[in-house]
Amino acid sequence: MKNIITSGRRKQSIARAVLSEGKGKITVNHIDLKTYSPELSRLKIMEPLMLAGDVASKVNIDIKVNGGGFITQADAARLAIARALVVYNGKLKETFLDYDRQLLVADIRVREVGKPNHHGQARARTQTSYR
Asked: How does pLDDT run across 86-120, given as a tens digit for each residue?
């Protein structure tokens, strides 16, 4: 079997997952998932693996994620893992969609860029005085 390469995005974070046959070893930025911190991120990343069950124990997944904060990185990694597992085993698609649609469909919301002469804020108007 060839490697399956997928990606996931959330806000400023981009995750790339490489799935290959193996013994269930998952690494995030060269750190084993069992020791990855913070714990909230680890639990988020493990969601698709728990839903996949024994399929996840037959593959190795190497994730590289950069940009954004730790929660958005976890969301991007979660999306990339779920997409890779669906390519590997198509039967998981319904399971993932029933659990949470965000596992397979990216959340495209991003921060609105700041406008010039608005002191860094995207929408707020500058104060004016007519006296």
From this structure: 999 989 999 999 999 988 999 899 988 888 888 87
| 9: its two tokens | 């995005």
Q: Note whether 84 and 6 are within 8 A (CB).
A: yes
Do 64 and 27 form a contact (C-beta atoms < 8 A)? no
The whole-model pTM stands at 0.87
How crowded is residue 76: how many other Cβ atoms within 10 Å of its Cβ? 29
Residues 6+ apart with CB under 8 A from 46: 33
Domains within the chain, CATH numbers bracketed = 4-103 (3.30.230.10)
Contacts of 7 (CB under 8 A, 6+ apart): 14, 15, 16, 17, 80, 83
How confident is the model over 27-65, as pLDDT tens digits? 999 999 999 989 999 999 999 999 998 898 999 999 999
How far lies 128's CA from each of 8, 33, 98, 118, 125, in Å? 43, 53, 52, 12, 9
